[in-house]
């Protein structure tokens, strides 16, 4: 995100930069229930993860992009897909989620990889990549971060790049050595 800085003098008279503000960060401590330009993409992902943990499908669905909604269909179809899909079942009522990697490859695209320990699991047993875009169209979604896709990450090459052992390899579970920072649920 872009910001503003001012130059000040530090110890020994050396110039230092002091950050005055950062734009693009969410001003809210609460998570979004609906798209709003006030929320950063990290907050949107966090809100969907929390909603799926609490089995609040309506809240998770509300943060999908129009393209994602067209793909998954009406809310009841989304609920059925999440509840019945073997690939996405670990997200529903999961025990915890750990944020593995975050990146913003362009001004309007955001990616976040999350390791999830499904219900009844101590270690992460599924890995997902959230793909968000900042909606460029007009109307109530203008400049809002919305989820275009949540992709299962199971390709061994991608796992290797992320530094995560593939299932069945030494280390056993997906994300077994993941971070234990503030992104953990």
Report on the architecture of this protein.
The N terminus and C terminus are likely disordered. The protein starts with a strand and ends in a 23-residue tail after the last helix. The protein has a single domain, classed as Nuclear Transport Factor 2, Chain: A (Roll). The protein has a four-stranded antiparallel β-sheet with strand order 3-4-5-6. Strands 1-2 form a two-stranded antiparallel ribbon. It is built from five helices and six strands. The protein is an alpha+beta fold and 185 residues long.
Outline the fold blueprint.
Layout: E1 3-9, E2 15-22, H1 41-53, H2 57-62, H3 66-72, H4 75-84, E3 96-106, E4 109-117, E5 126-134, E6 145-152, H5 156-162
InterPro entries: DUF4864
């Amino acid at each position: 995100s872009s910001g503003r800085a001012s130059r000040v003098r530090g110890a020994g008279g050396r110039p230092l930069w002091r950050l005055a503000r950062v734009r693009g960060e969410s001003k809210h401590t609460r998570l979004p229930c609906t798209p709003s330009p006030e929320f950063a993409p990290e907050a949107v992902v966090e809100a969907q993860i929390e909603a799926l943990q609490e089995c609040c499908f309506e809240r998770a669905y509300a943060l999908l992009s129009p393209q994602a909604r067209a793909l998954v269909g009406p809310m009841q179809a989304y609920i059925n897909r999440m509840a019945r899909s073997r690939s996405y079942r670990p997200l529903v009522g999961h025990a915890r989620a750990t944020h593995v990697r975050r990146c913003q490859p362009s001004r309007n695209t955001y990616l976040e990889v999350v390791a999830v320990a499904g219900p009844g699991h101590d270690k992460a047993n599924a890995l997902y990549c959230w793909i968000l875009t900042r909606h460029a169209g007009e109307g109530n979604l203008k400049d809002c971060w919305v989820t275009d896709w949540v992709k299962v990450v199971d390709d061994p090459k991608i796992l290797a790049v992320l530094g995560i052992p593939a299932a069945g390899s030494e280390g056993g579970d997906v994300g077994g050595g993941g971070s234990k920072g503030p992104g953990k649920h």
